[in-house]
Amino acid sequence: MRAADISDDISEVLLTEEQIHDKLAELAAQVAADYAGRDVVLVGVLKGAVMVMADFARHLPMHITMDWMAVSSYGASTRSSGVVQIRKDLDTDITGKDVLIVEDIIDSGLTLSWLLENFASRGAASVEVLALLRKPDAMKVEVDCRYVGFDIPNDFVIGYGLDYAEKYRNLRDVAVLAPHVYS
Ligand code: PRP
After folding, report:
1. What radius of gyration do the chain's Cα atoms show?
2. How far apart, in whole angstroms, are the C-alpha atoms of residue 36 and residue 11?
3. Nearest-angstrom CA–CA distance, 39 and 59
4. Domains of the chain by range and CATH?
5. Residue 169: CB within 6 Å of ligand 1?
6. Catalytic status, residue 9
């Protein structure tokens, strides 16, 4: 018997690698126009945003700097409170900087809503959000997201940085996880 492939665990490809790259190129053109003449700090939220950051940033023609944060909620019971723990903080001082947070997905919106407040309190000149994916039906709090790639249904999606139990991040497409994997 052969070893299981990732494709065995997928019920449907939602977005192909090509669709994702086309969209990131389109968003990069908008960002380049909006931020012309300004210094932008791209902040990726680990780990899911790694692929989005790598591909989006390489579509940008202008100078940028890049930083990373790692955050996690305190646990299932407190997740709805939106309390977030910083596991890795920024290396750079964002006071007076134009910050663009780069995310793979907005699900409940709790992570971003906390991050937006946190960055504003550090004195950033501006803070905007770019998210490849957004699940409108899962959102618990409104998040002002200036650049959105795709609104998607409230399915369990994996790939292109998104995980299930830390796996599937290396899938090139975004896909729906087959129920047999988690049921
Ligand atoms: C995911 C994603 C966002 C967050 C969105 O990260 O990358 O940061 O969840 O969810 P929310 O809108 O409900 O707050 P996760 O905590 O799964 O960590 P990971 O990026 O390391 O996979």
Report:
1. 17
2. 42
3. 16
4. 3-177 (3.40.50.2020)
5. no
6. no
> Ligand 1: which of 45, 129, 134, 148 to mutate, judged by most atoms within 8 Å of the beta carbon?
45
Among the listed residues 150, 12, 23, the one whose alpha carbon sits nearest the alpha carbon of residue 31: 23
Q: Which residues does 68 contact at the CB level (< 8 Å), separation at least 6?
A: 43, 44, 45, 46, 88, 90, 91
CA distance 175 to 77: 28
140, pLDDT greater than 90: yes
Q: Are 41 and 99 in contact (CB under 8 A)?
A: yes
Asked whether the beta carbons of 115 and 141 are under 8 A apart, the reply is no
Evaluated on CA atoms 119, 155, 168, 160, the torsion sign reads negative
pLDDT of residue 145: 97
Residue 103 confidence (pLDDT) above 90: yes
Higher confidence at residue 83 or residue 125?
125
- Residue 47: CB within 6 Å of ligand 1? yes
pLDDT bin (cut points 50, 70, 90) of residue 50 is very high
Is the beta carbon of 135 within 6 A of some atom in ligand 1?
Answer: no
Residue 130 Cα distances to 135, 161, 164, 178, angstroms: 14, 15, 22, 28
